[in-house]
Design goal:
The protein has helices spanning 29-36, 39-44, 55-65, 117-132, 147-155, 184-191, and strands at residues 19-22, 75-81, 86-96, 101-108, 137-143, 159-170, 173-183. By secondary structure, it is α+β, with helices and mostly antiparallel strands. It has a 7-stranded mixed β-sheet, with helices on both faces. Helix 1 (29-36) packs across helix 3. The radius of gyration is 17 Å and the shape is globular.
């Protein structure tokens, strides 16, 4: 058992019922490398097929983000279960302080999907963006064939705002990019169990 599990996280901002955030570490490189081996999952995330990588290469990449450093406008958090097991990562990016907008990217390892981990992680990040950073809207998108991501966005209260046709290319085909938006008021309504007109 991870020694950190002995700490009292019951009042920790970065935690929900299933997962919590922590700083990424270089020893997360192996889990990150295993994620790269899931080529169909990577294609759905839209980066395409990367050139062959290694644990060492992932370790050098993780060094850029260690300690939640802002690297090129992106802050990455590791997602771990309450037992301290690393199951994925989430990034806060595209922050626009003038217009009050932001975005995110989330990835959960293949063996840990369909357990609600990604949804909880995104909810934590939304809470931080809206309630601590005073952003007023979150933008997001996914490929039109990513049914799990579409369902997650809708369950969190995101509203489909449009599509970019033939925007994403993988596995020999072009796919539409589904555009989502969530305002601070819509997020608050979902957190309070209310439904907004936009999300109805």
């Amino acid at each position: 058992m991870n020694s950190q599990a002995a700490f009292d996280y019951s009042h920790y901002f970065w935690q929900e019922e299933k997962v919590r955030f922590r700083q990424p570490r270089t020893d997360d490189a192996e889990r990150s490398f295993v994620g790269i081996l899931d080529s169909p999952g990577r294609q759905l995330l839209a980066p395409g097929i990367e050139l062959p990588a290694s644990v060492e290469l992932q370790r050098s990449c993780m060094e850029k983000y260690a300690g939640c450093k802002d690297a090129g406008g992106e802050i990455i958090f590791a997602i771990e279960t309450l037992e301290g097991f690393n199951v994925g990562g989430i990034a806060l990016h595209s922050r626009d302080d003038k217009h009050g907008t932001f975005s995110f990217a989330v990835e959960v390892g293949r063996d840990h999907r369909r357990k609600g981990y990604a949804q909880e992680a995104v909810r934590i990040l939304l809470k931080y963006g809206f309630w601590e950073r005073r952003y007023q809207k979150c933008h997001s998108s996914c490929a039109d064939v990513n049914d799990a991501s579409i369902a997650m966005h809708r369950s969190l209260g995101f509203v489909e705002e449009g599509r970019r046709r033939r925007q994403v290319f993988f596995n020999g085909r072009y796919h539409d990019q589904v555009l989502f938006g969530l305002t601070r008021e819509e997020f608050d309504a979902v957190k309070e169990g209310r439904q907004t007109d936009a999300g109805a």
